[in-house]
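Researcher: Quick sanity check before group meeting.
Model: Go ahead. Protein one:
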Amino acid sequence: MDCLKRAVRRLNKTDATFVAVRNGRIMDSHDRGIAPIMALVLADTNALRGACVADKVIGKAAALLLVRAGVERLFANTISEHAMSLLSEYHLTFEFGQSVPY
């Protein structure tokens, strides 16, 4: 199964707020905001390099962290227009359920 589909499926089937799939390994979190991304990147700067990520909500700060972390593909249930602009600028492939202005 495609890594992004796998991440989205896990996000939708559990109460996780964040799911990353990298090299077949699933990492998930129930923390809110940018905490899951920060925790992974602070523990290992390459933890998300090449990963597929699914998240409940992505704003501009989270988008920038994901770009810097080297995420390959992203799905967000809800994403801000500012985040979409930033992700497009850095050519990070993303899909989403709904967009919001901020």
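Researcher: Fine. The other one?
Model: Protein two, sequence then structure:
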Amino acid sequence: GDVLELDGERAAVVNKREIGRTFIDDSGFEEIESETVRQRKQMAYDGMITLIVTLNADTGALHGDPEIVTRGVRGFDSSNGNLKDAQRLVAAAIAGASRETLADATLLKEHIRVELKRFIQKLTGARPVIMPVVLQV
């Protein structure tokens, strides 16, 4: 790109710089990381799912049904039974998880995220951003 020098009366190109793509957010002039841009594109095309599970802190057992909130995910909602199937899948993934996975919230989040992502991709072809939340009570 061109490096400009500005003074009160004129502008001049004074140098050149090698740059790649730069994305700027509307809220200011800060660069946006490429991963953020990738996630925004993915959400625009395939939607987003928030997956909330509540576990017993002592046993790691699921407390109630997993809550699944979807935004913009095509072909996946409560009207066609897919939501109930997904809840059962997540519950089974938790029940079948190793002790090590249940003891580490990061491992558990990744485990249930991957299981749900595979299910939805196979069912709908969509690859939504999935945000798992694990609460322990």
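Researcher: One line on it for the slide.
Model: Helices lie at 34-46, 82-95, 99-103, 105-124.
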